[in-house]
Amino acid sequence: MNPRLLLAFGFLSGLPPAVPAAAPGAALTVQAAVASSYAGKAPVLAAARAGKRVVSVGDYGTVMLSDGGAFRQAREVPVNATLTAVTFVDDKFGWAVGHWGAILHTEDGGETWTRQRLDTTIDRPLFSVHFIDRNNGVAVGLWSLLLTTQDGGKSWNSVSLPKPPDGGRGDRNLFKVFGNRGDVLYIAAERGTVLRSADRGATWSYLDTGYKGSLWTGLVLHDGSLVVAGLRGTAYRSVDGGKSWTQATTQTKSSITDLVESGNTLWGVGLDGVTLSSSDAGVSFVARQREDRLALTAAAVAGDGSLLTFSKRGLVTAAER
Prior knowledge:
mainly beta
């Protein structure tokens, strides 16, 4: 199971779901995230750069901000649902998604957030969000939930995927949407699935990786190559836009949860306390493991180029790594 699912439902964090399910026929009570002195230790599921700032999101609607020093909690977050992903197109405009199909938006670098979408009828979480610019974005999640916007999130439109070429079920979970700020987008998903869109998410086609397990994350590198990774330390690489794929050597069987690039190094983090590094654009990785095997759930590159890693206990400091 993807770590966003695990943490969202409390299996990794040891906590109950961030927003309890409403009783049949009852309306869900939506509450804002609360300020807490323990926010820095809340489980983190994703992190992103907003200019020089790093923004992380996670359990109970917790949003944390760092401008190069210690992390502090955002001033205003309108939901206390688990947030699973965050993205920024510049130092001000960003979006976060999560449980109950929540989509939040900020125009001040993550200090304050407004709610753009929330479906209180069913907890069908969104797992990932990506924006090409301030107007065009895509959010993906459980059971092929795929939403697009052309107006910065003021309205979101549902997109139906075509039937898979293998004839299997079409409602597979979509774990990571990513791109390179152009019109071409990709989604890493279940059953080795990678989807590609050349029209900002309006239509999608399937790419054959040759893999049958779940892919949890993906990235377009600076040189244009693609890397996707996921279950049991599996990673695949493509240099032709996904037409063909080769398996990378990762030196680990621990599932990979996130990928980030800094300079000439591609970094990965994963379950069992694994950190991976590649100096050849994802052809091969060197893996190292924490003694306590603390699951690493997300990574980001700080303003000074250093790697930040996150876990179910929040930020993992350099000393702890």
